[in-house]
Amino acid sequence: MPTPHETAAEILRPGTAGEVADIMRSTTGTVVPAGAGTKTGWAAPPTSCDLLLRTTGLDRVLEHEPGDLIAVAEAGVPLHALQQRLAEHGQMLALDPPEQGATLGGIVSANASGPRRLRYGTVRDLLIGVTVVLADGTTAKAGGKVVKNVAGYDLGKLYTGAHGGLGTVVSTTWRLHPLPPAMCAVLVPVRDSAEAGRLAALLARSTLTPTAVELRWRAGAGAGGGGGGGELAVLFESIEASVRAQTRAAVALLGAGTPAETPPDWFGQRPTGALVLRMAFAPAALPHVLDALPETATGTASACTGVAYAAVPADTDLAALRTAIRPYDGSAVVLSAPDDSRAELDHWGPVADSFGLMTRVKDQFDPERRLSPGRLLGGL
Fold first, then answer.
1. Over the stretch 19-47, which tens digit does the pLDDT of each residue have?
2. pTM of the predicted protein model
3. Residues 6+ apart with CB under 8 A from 344
4. Is residue 83's pLDDT more than 60?
């Protein structure tokens, strides 16, 4: 199915938050907010797009307080541009999704993260303030420029992962971290799913503090077979003495491992294929989730956080896969699919018990259902 970029009747690129508000007040049709377009295939396709609202014109870093480890940047700022600016002060925003050119607003709207979520958390943990324009043109702010803000509800978490369905993110405020002075990756070959689970459990129960534990995987034997194999990459980032000590301890703990100055090329990348899924599950269930994948599946997993990305055949029975991983708190969301089948797929899976609450929230923020219609769970 074509993307909103291809089907929109009109495309606008406002340069200020005020212009976004003016557009929303003067528009009566459906609106799909988007940044650089790196994740427009995620979630279900919108059922309608009269206006594609590109936020790439909102490209200013508004504030950076190095002493407070806080940055305020508009939604259209590319992550890599912000990282370059922060690096001049020895700091970083500890988010590392792999999509090249991704903007801050798009990262928030898609709740995109990467391997370093193990140590630093996800968007919801690092986003401490947000400004959005609602469907009626109202500008709303949540959070502030302090790491802990308890004045009211944390609406930033509500907008995270909303795919533009509750409002257009126009500005973001972030908690920052110092750049680590040293790094080392320990690379360990993995024979099968059971070994992958065993190694991940050893690391999770140890006193080591890796930044990330990533697994590259090929299924091999199919459901219940325990076959396949891959490579585990354990990343340590800290002062040099700590990195060296933890690297030695990790090799001893795992019984194998080759130190490398940098992570492998596949580290943090999402697989490509006809049908790509984002799977979430209880971390201890990693072997069971790997075994549930089709024989030809490939992918990567954040082995200690219970998140995996899998490329599977286009004809994969998603209902059966979801049923197989459900006992492990498992879910499988479609990130990309063939154009000719995308509209018919069940992108999100079974409707959660909280769907009634989600519907009421959608009704409150977008009562006319004009924002990214149909992209959210249950066709919201």
1. 999 999 999 999 999 999 888 888 888 99
2. 0.90
3. none
4. yes
Note whether 15 and 58 are within 8 A (CB). yes
Task: Give a three-class secondary structure readout of the chain.
Answer: CCCHHHHCCEEECCCCHHHHHHHHHHCCCCEEEECCCCCCCCCCCCCCCCEEEECCCCCCEEEEEHHHCEEEEECCCEHHHHHHHHHCCCEECCCCCCCCCCEHHHHHHHCCCCCCHHHHCCHHHHEEEEEEECCCCCEEEEECCCCCCCCCCCHHHHHCCCCCCCCEEEEEEEECEECCCEEEEEEEEECCHHHHHHHHHHHHHCCCCCCEEEEEEECCCCCCCCCCEEEEEEEEEECHHHHHHHHHHHHHHHCCCEEECCCCCCCCCCCCCCEEEEEECCHHHHHHHHHHCCCCCEEEEECCCCEEEEEECCCCCHHHHHHHHHHHCCEEEEEECCCCCHHHCCCCCCCCCCHHHHHHHHHHHCCCCCECCCCCHHHC
